[in-house]
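Reply to dn_fold:

You asked what the input looked like. This is it:
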Amino acid sequence: MDKLVIAIDGPSGSGKSTVGKAIARRLGYLYIDSGAVYRAVGRKALDTNTSLEDATSVARLANLSSITLEGDPDHLRVFLDGRDVSGQIRLPDASHASSVVATIPEVREAVVEKLREMARAGGVVMDGRDIGTKVFPDAQVKLFLDASLDVRARRRCEEERERGRDVTADQIREELEARDRRDCERTATPLVKAPDAVFIDTSDLPLDAVVERALEIARTRSQT
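and this is what came back:
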């Protein structure tokens, strides 16, 4: 199979990261978690006491920061200015900060350039919220995953509990609803399905079925 660029978009909890990692594993591709880059920017803002409302300063941080990803899909490590922040970007404060800074157009432009550089050689699977519409509008394979809010809340609640966070499904549901609003209502590349993306509802589908569907699409596109 040619070294394709596979773009996966969708809201939080839709399964895009899990599916993206599985696809990358099967194809031997590089997996790029675009959300981790935004989380790193949010982490940098928190660590430098930069107001999340100060768009100019946050954008400057995004442009000047070195953010790199290393490792395989199951052991992806995120480095911020040479420092491993893989665990710190998953903390609740960084999660909130990332969702705020991601609404800043200048930050998104800076991150888009970093993501494009990471994927320059092809053979990558990248997931996020504007990968097929903004980052790689010419990607050979575009997928848009979604699931019901209840399913997404349950999945995310399980993930957070595995990380040691004491949360309830109702609490996570409220957080997801707020994140969905920010993602869909932001003026800078809101979360929307690209016209040529294949929609997959993952609510009732097992992971293997979603992955096989995605691989089938990739094989078809590689032959055209």
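The domain at 37-122 is CATH 3.40.50.300 (Rossmann fold).
Hope that clears it up.
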